[in-house]
């Protein structure tokens, strides 16, 4: 299979053009995925099987029907861009991470096209970074993040057109979510549930979601700072009384932009899901 050795220790550049293969600063090979080239890997999952901890997988432009399951090893994947690379799956979510200790995934659209209860991206107890990707059309939330050892960083992703929320953090996860664009989801842009769940939510944009921008419930905690929640169908932020934010509730309106939501900026309620029968 095609491989290109790294030439210098520069950082991986996920913004490389479609024709430009990014340099690998990790010390390993670069494994090329290109379904139109018989000398390359036909699917990303095939490259993952061969990839070592210092290898970089580069996915050229194309639409790939595949499922990426990555467990208990570092992973480094760069796509040619989320508008050029789509990985879709009919039978399960196209990306599942389980106890991934490190790594970076960027420049890919993950799309679920089946009818069962799956998300586009599923992250369990992992500590990698996902940036400049797109997660769409999940029957559950677009991205689910869960587990007490789950500490991923999600930055500059688009999360849209999912049947529940955009990004859902629960079961004790503590991700860092920044500059993500969550829109056109059927429930909330960002949702956080459970005692022990404590994400940092900074500079995210939640708009045109069919409930509210951000939801915190069942004892969730979160840093909520410099987010913009506007043009959602209900409120900017919805919280239950047992949830907690930093800054405190009184300062949330000053620390975030929660305007142009028809029902108001913020509500504290015991029944945040009553309008969907839960």
Automatic annotation (TrEMBL):
Keywords from UniProt, A to Z, are: Repeat
SUPFAM superfamilies on file = Pectin lyase-like
Stretches the record annotates as Disordered: 1-47
Q: Where is the composition biased (Polar residues)?
A: 32-42
Q: Does the keyword Signal apply?
A: no
A Pfam family name for this chain?
Beta_helix
The residues covered by the Right handed beta helix domain are: 104-238
Q: Quote the protein name from its UniProt record.
A: Right-handed parallel beta-helix repeat-containing protein
Organism for this UniProt entry: Candidatus Nitronereus thalassa
